[in-house]
Q: What sequence folds into this?
DNA sequence: AAGGTCTCCTGAGGGC
DNA sequence: TGCCCTCAGGAGACCT
């Protein structure tokens, strides 16, 4: 379940292998990977062939390669992986797209559940056209703490739902939402508008801390579904305090962590530390 | 308009 | 052993 730290791990992993390199040929193997692309797989393949990669950008969970043919936007969805392969790689059941680079390496997009996609298009104010509606993420320089706090406090929805809204602040998914709420001791169903300014800023700062820590540990993963470009898993799952911890003692107070359905998601929290809503 | 729900998808895991 | 059901979740589509 790639969220900001996992996508950043992928971005960093790709830097050495694709920046300054040229794509020779590209093949899109599953129509859903090209579903957002006008012209579909054929258009992606045609535009990527011969493209030179000059950099890699990211906002929240969105990743893009700056190329001479436009920005190749990559969304990993639920299960997407960008893998670097060399030699004669073993076939993969869920390989959805592959690019042969002039370096001899291959770039693979493996995506079991096909929620991910590729799209090539133009940049607007430095971000791909499909990302213009996405707010800055917690770790980028364009992020405004005061502006985001004010925006969140104007919402009447439960705070967790607001955290998951990528147009308010990006990069947060179900795992990090639960972790930052646990850290800030706030119940996810608390109406955003009921939180004090200081509570919201504490919450967002908790999100920054959790994400920086996760990044240091190579991201979160529970199995082989999320891996870096070399196919390795991160270690942050060992540090989770709330997500997936139902039935285990809260590391802060010892009360058993509870799992409930809200914000349309499985939500994990400590009923004592995060008891009031 | 904003907020909430449905839907896409595949494999894992539970129940029997 | 095997079948069927449910669940996981990012985010756009769609509804109210």
A:
């Amino acid at each position: 379940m790639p969220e900001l730290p996992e996508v950043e791990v992928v971005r960093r992993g790709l830097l050495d292998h694709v920046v300054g390199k040229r794509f020779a040929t590209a093949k899109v193997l599953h129509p859903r990977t090209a579903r957002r692309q006008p012209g579909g797989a054929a258009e992606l393949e045609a535009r990527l062939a011969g493209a030179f990669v000059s950099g890699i950008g990211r906002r929240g969970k969105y990743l893009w390669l700056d190329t001479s043919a436009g920005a190749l936007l990559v969304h990993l969805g639920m299960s997407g992986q960008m893998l670097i392969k060399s030699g004669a790689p073993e076939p993969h059941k869920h390989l959805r797209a592959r690019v042969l680079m002039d370096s001899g390496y291959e770039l693979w997009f493996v995506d079991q559940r096909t929620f991910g996609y590729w799209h090539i298009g133009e940049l607007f104010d430095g971000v791909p056209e499909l990302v213009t509606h996405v707010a800055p993420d917690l770790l980028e320089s364009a992020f405004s703490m005061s502006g985001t706090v004010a925006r969140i406090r104007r919402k009447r929805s439960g705070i967790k739902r607001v955290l998951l809204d990528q147009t308010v602040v990006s990069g947060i998914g179900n795992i990090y939402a639960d972790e930052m709420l646990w850290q800030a001791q706030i119940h996810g169903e608390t109406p955003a508008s009921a939180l004090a300014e200081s509570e919201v800023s504490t919450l967002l700062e908790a999100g920054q801390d959790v994400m920086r820590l996760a990044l240091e540990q190579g991201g979160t993963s529970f199995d082989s579904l999320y891996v870096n470009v070399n196919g390795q898993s991160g270690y942050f799952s060992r540090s989770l305090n709330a997500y997936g911890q139902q039935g285990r003692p809260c590391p802060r107070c010892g009360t058993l962590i509870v799992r409930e359905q809200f914000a349309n998601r499985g939500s994990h929290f400590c009923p004592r530390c995060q008891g009031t809503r």
Observations:
- Chain A has a mean pLDDT of 89.
- The longest strand of chain A covers residues 53-59.
- Residues 90 and 153 of chain A are 51 Å apart (CA to CA).
- The first helix of chain A runs from residue 4 to 18.
